Amino acid sequence: MKKPVFSIIIPTYNSEATLARALESILEQSFENYEILIMDGLSTDSTCAIVEAFKVKNPSVSLVSEPDSGIYDAMNKGIVLAKGEWLYFLGSDDYLFDNQVLESVHSFIVNTSYEVVYGQVQSDGFNGLYDGEFDCLKLTRKNICHQAIFVKKHVFDKIGNFDTSYTSVADWHHNIRWFYNRKIPHQYIEVTIAEYADDGYSTHNRDEKFLDLKNEILFKYGMFSIPVNNLIPIVSKIVKQSYAKKRIDKVLFYGIVWCCLKLKSKFL
Predict the structure, then answer these.
(1) Residue 77 contacts by C-beta under 8 Å, 6 or more apart in sequence?
(2) How far out from the chain centre does Cα 116 lie?
(3) CATH number assigned to the domain comprising residue 51
(4) In angstroms, rounded to a whole number, what is the distance separating the alpha carbons of residues 123 and 192?
(5) For residue 155, what is the enclosing H or E element?
């Protein structure tokens, strides 16, 4: 079997109600050079039986069912096992938008030097399409759905896998790391990739650690990409948060950074 172009990784746990539709949306694709990795967290319903039934006629489907520490741990395990050049993460309650998605993406990436390509998703929760092309400022306010993103596998070698300490938006943290990295070229394409279920884990679970550290994360990875006038209020928030936590070391450091940015802005 030739090496797959795409490795489609689907984390599952008790997903019997939605998984078949997700799998069918992949198996109906006009482009067929892919593998499907089901990373299951020891489901107690018929999830694994559904996968086994699909495997009978579809050798591209494989299943690993073992304990995990959540969605991003399952996704990281899929990264290790993936044989494809490009990785794509689909929720078990999502499905590809139409049967031309992989064909459309492949037509774009086949002669490109980009290492991340993303489109958009369709969702009633977003009142339609979400959310077009991102820029350095837009990413500070909202995330790119992982269901819209195709990432070359070697990107994970460059910047690491998903940080599982972020419980519900580790994908946002990861997106920040590649988006602001000038050594990882990326491109938006006018393709609707998936039908996104807006009732997933991240919808109902606040990631307190990420929210607490968000401004520091943005500064760390975006200091050379985010416009200075937009970086100033980010640093200002860090100073205020640090003061409230009595982290004087951070108050001093980011206070100096804030002064330097303000000075720099006067000469722009």
Answers:
(1) 39, 64, 68
(2) 11
(3) 3.90.550.10
(4) 11
(5) helix 153-159
Please state whether beta strands 95-96 and 86-89 pair in parallel, antiparallel, or not at all (unpaired). Answer: unpaired
Same domain as 232, residue 126? no
pLDDT at 203 over 70: no
- Residue 46 burial (CB count, 10 A): 15
Residues 33 and 74 in one domain: yes
10 Å Cβ neighbour count for 78?
A: 21
Domain that residue 183 falls in: 6-208
pLDDT tens track for 214-226: 999 999 999 999 9
Task: Write the pLDDT tens digit of every residue in 234-264.
Answer: 999 999 999 999 999 999 999 999 999 999 9
Residue entry with tokens 């609707």:
192
Q: What is the token pair recorded at 206?
A: 């606040």
Domain count, the chain: 2
User: What letters, b where the CB count within 10 A reaches 16 and e where it falls short, cover 128-161?
Assistant: eebeeebebeebbeebbbbbbbbbbeebbeeeeb
Residue among 250, 246, 262, 142 nearest 202 (CA): 142
Neighbouring C-alpha atoms within 13 Å toward the C-beta of 262: 9
Query: Is residue 207 within 8 Å of 199, Cβ to Cβ?
Result: no
What is the C-alpha end-to-end distance of the chain, expressed in Å? 56
Assess contact for 184 and 117: CB atoms under 8 A. Answer: no
